[in-house]
Amino acid sequence: MVPPPCKPYKRPNKATFDIQLQPIAERVTKSDTIWVRRRQTKMEHRIEAVPTPHIPANQTHPHPQDSSRRYLPIGIWSILVVLLATVVLSACGPGRAAEPTPEPVTLRYVTFNALGSVEQALVDQFVAAHPHITVDVQSYRQAPLQYLAEPTPPDLMLIVPGEQFSTAIDQGLLTDVTDLWQETGLDHTYPAAFRALSEHNGKQFMLPVGYTWNGVYYNRGVFERYGLQPAQTWDEFITLCDTLLLNGETPLALSGRDFFMASLWIDYLALRLYGAEFQRQLTHGEISFYDDRVRSVFETWRSLIEGGYFLEDAQSQTGLAAATTLARNEQLDLSRGKAAMILAGPATLSELPEPFRAELDFFPFPTIDPTLPTGEVVYTAGFMIPAGAPHRLEALQFLAFLSSQPARDLVSNDLRTTALFVPAFAQHEAGDLPAAVGQGMAQVEEADAVVSALALGVRQPVQFAFSEALRRLLADPDAGRPFNLEEALAALENARLRDQ
Length: 500
Prior knowledge:
Layout: H1 14-25, E1 32-39, E2 44-51, H2 76-92, E3 105-111, H3 118-129, E4 133-139, H4 144-148, E5 156-159, H5 163-170, H6 178-184, H7 186-189, H8 192-195, E6 199-200, E7 203-204, E8 207-212, E9 215-219, H9 220-225, H10 234-246, E10 250-253, H11 259-274, H12 276-283, H13 292-306, H14 319-324, E11 339-344, H15 346-350, H16 354-357, E12 360-363, E13 375-384, H17 392-401, H18 405-418, E14 422-423, H19 435-445, E15 449-452, H20 454-457, H21 460-474, H22 485-498
Parallel strand pairs: 3-4, 3-5, 10-11, 13-15
Antiparallel strand pairs: 1-2, 5-13, 6-7, 8-13, 8-14, 9-11, 9-12
Helix pairs in contact: 1-2, 3-18, 11-12, 11-13, 21-22
């Protein structure tokens, strides 16, 4: 008997329909099919969520005798949904109802492109798996807090934990993603020290993609030429610098125009002289800049600058220009001044051509006080979802996708060429990582503490005062007013007090 043709029906109100289906939809994955069955004997309507079955050619219905299928009890709303579905099925004859086509959704994603080329690859793969979703990728044009204050904030944002991130949590502007940490296993696999960087009152508000390390990068060829070895202690480091100077080599490069790079010297001198807790307090404005320990940090750095250990034009150099001074490949020589070392992270070096990067290696910042626990400065980047995001469900789908095997494979393949960061979801696959990534991961894991960079944690008024102090510190004394440490500390302290 030929079943009658499907009869048109009036679609119910969308809001009502969504309310009815929502509890069911949350339990059914994309690869599942909702089958509606009616039990004639007990006159009960129940909804079953089962994988799409294979129906042999000689069998009209799937699993006709399968009594092991588990049914979910339903309430009055579900009964109405089933009645609606029954009408549709009876009109269409034997067979299954077509899945409703999801409405198109555009996720607004704001990023600062810290992940390199793999970022767009991840977006493309997610969109391919979710055809109804498109992602509008935008670069940061203002501070994160300004985006979060918009009437309609973005759906997704890339963030590095710091002052802006902490303030957003305090103001209730972010979505709690603690459950996602548990479902993806990050609460067990991600290093505890890193979990603390994005945690607030036991809850997580960012899903990390990975973290980067910092170190003293050096040109291997230059070290081999003079028989030098990476320094482990501060005395060895000073001897290394003096040896380079005696051989006509400038020991250190620095970017005076890159506050993140320049302030790493404040971070590491604070860590090595007085420990991680002191660095954290300094970053969060809990210590007066008149503190003798702060003065000691600046004086130690000033002694290196006045000793001629840095390139003379460091004040005007960009981060890329400073990194390029380490290269000795004559065919690709793009810089005038040369240096042997630079304190930086892999992101700074990632913009160099591969022949340049192949000349470099790195070692941890030397120990000054051996009685202190070892600390490392790290940048950890991840995704946050604004509390007011218009498409939070789809944004959470994207975060869940990051832990999938296809996403992990994309990241692993990209790292083989970029060596840009340690992936959050590949801790158990460390042996497959590039040598530089494995070296950076080992350096951080061996540390007793990890801290966020001062450049990310200080408030804006203090950052401006820091930038001015660094500019004057790096300036040529013959070209203008010499650096006055007391004036710099006074300006920093005034900025700190104004911000409280």
